[in-house]
Write a structure and sequence with these properties.
By secondary structure, the protein is mostly beta strands. It has one domain: Beta Barrel (Porin). The chain has five helices and 21 strands. Strand 8 and strand 9 form a beta hairpin. The termini are far apart.
């Protein structure tokens, strides 16, 4: 046992050194990817008048051309597209580099945080830890007309298997997935190298009715709200929600087929998919039969609002507990509106609940998060969460029975200052503070009933595009 532990520690030490050396390399790669598209965008806008505000394209030409070229069937704006087949409010900001290749419309999205994260105190026995790393993703979308509709191909990738490491980054009270054959706890797992490989087709079949087909070797079924990496309300937050595995954890599923019908106001869709969560090998594709299913209804009653509700059955989602399946219910309200003359305020209210096979009731979660871009330089963001987690989720089964439920809470807030524009993107620096709340029974585990965390980071993303909606 001692030799095995020593081997694991040596592997972790080497992995940590590789991670620390490569997270800056990943950021540089993202810059390198973005640079050519900046040249294309500059060429396309060479005759445009100067923008009204740094980092925001508000020229009449941009508003008109984007509204024409960046709409789908029924005239729906691309700003409505969230993760997978989910919808955002039409007024949501879009951070992307747009260019064309012949008759193809191409969009490059990316987001990278380089961080120092410290959770809890210095005593590892109380689950505290710190890390230098990077959470990141890059996504290329290519759209083209086909058979009277629109075909969109998507590829989304992350370097987190190397820049975060297989063990994930410190995040007190987080749970979900595994590491070295044990439940991962108090850390957020890294995203896989392949986050989405998908084809999406939409076509109008009547003046106010369209159909959609989404086929993805790696993708997201019709379950939950838009995943947190794609929500404007979480756009400046480097940390995952503690309620991730109660709300939107299916955003990386290895095998998804979805179909839906939609109007300009609502969409009804269903999916069959592989319900197993990613395993510890973050660089492969874990194909399995499509053994799970989901359905979702979304309503966008106005440009500022998007409301959704979903149900999903996940067959054997956890590799460590193959005999346990799960029912998941979610409901969400997303809002996006302008503030002041140059600001934007994005918010999300989300409820999610799981019921595992054999359980008598639901384990619930609730999240409220907001991001306010006060102007072109300053942003504030925050998140409040409540989650019911079991002793098994928190890996305290040596003290409590596995099904013991704990009510936990978390409050976090942060600030970002935009520093400069670089390679078609915007570089910001920020800080986030968090305060968690646990019941007295968990105080011996965490050393306090109110463990805290802090992270300082830089953030790289494309500049905001405007699509003519306010």
């Amino acid at each position: 046992m001692r030799a095995t532990t020593g081997t694991i520690m040596r592997r972790d030490f080497i992995g940590d050194k590789v991670r620390d050396a490569t997270y800056l390399t990943a950021a540089a790669l993202l810059l390198g990817i973005a640079a050519p598209w900046r040249l294309a965008a500059q060429h396309a806008m060479a005759d445009a008048p100067p923008t009204a505000a740094a980092g925001r394209d508000t020229t009449p030409m941009a508003g008109m051309s984007m509204a024409v070229s960046m709409t789908g069937p029924l005239g729906l704006p691309m700003s409505r597209d969230g993760s997978g087949t989910s919808w955002l409010p039409d007024a949501a900001p879009m951070h992307a580099n747009h260019f064309t290749a012949g008759s193809w419309e191409l969009m490059l999205h990316y987001l990278a945080f380089g961080y120092y994260d410290r959770q809890g105190g210095a005593d590892p026995a109380k689950r505290g830890d710190d890390q230098i790393g990077s959470v990141n993703w890059v996504m290329l979308m290519a759209s083209h007309g086909l058979a009277g509709g629109r075909l969109q191909l998507r590829g989304m990738f992350s370097a987190e298997p190397w820049t975060v490491g297989r063990r994930g980054y410190p995040l007190l009270l987080q749970s979900g997935e595994s590491y070295h054959g044990q439940p991962l706890h108090d850390r957020q797992h890294p995203h896989d190298l392949f986050m989405e490989l998908a084809a999406n087709y939409e076509r109008a079949i009547a003046p106010n009715l369209g159909i959609q087909l989404y086929v993805a070797p790696v993708g997201e079924p019709a379950s939950g709200p838009p995943a947190f990496p794609h929500r404007p309300s979480a756009g400046n937050d480097p940390m995952a929600p503690l309620s991730h595995h109660w709300q939107d954890a299916t955003h990386i599923s290895f095998g998804v087929i979805s179909a839906g019908i939609f109007t300009r106001m609502w969409k009804l869709e269903g999916s069959v998919f592989n319900g197993r969560e990613p395993d510890e090998d973050r660089t492969d594709i874990d194909f399995r039969r499509l053994d799970s299913y989901a359905g979702r209804i979304t309503v966008n009653p106005a440009a500022a609002w998007s409301l959704s509700g979903s149900y999903a059955y996940l067959a054997s989602p956890e590799v460590l507990f193959p005999g346990v399946s799960q029912h998941r219910l979610t409901a969400s309200v997303l809002n996006d509106r302008g503030i002041g003359t140059r600001g934007r305020w994005s918010s999300a209210l989300i409820w999610g609940a799981n019921k595992e096979s054999g359980d008598a009731g639901l384990s619930n979660s609730a999240l409220l998060e907001s991001n306010a871009d006060l102007d072109t330089r300053n942003s504030v963001f925050g998140r409040i969460e409540y989650v019911q987690k079991s002793a098994r989720d928190l890996a305290v089964t040596d003290t409590f029975v596995p099904d013991r439920i704990f009510d936990i809470g978390s409050v976090s807030a942060g600030y970002v200052r935009e520093l400069t524009e670089l390679a078609g993107g915007s570089v910001g620096i920020g800080v986030q503070l968090s305060l968690d709340l646990v019941p007295g029974s968990l105080e011996p585990v965490y050393g306090t009933r109110s463990p805290s965390g802090v992270s300082v980071f830089f953030r790289l993303r494309p500049r905001e595009m405007r699509i003519g909606l306010q």
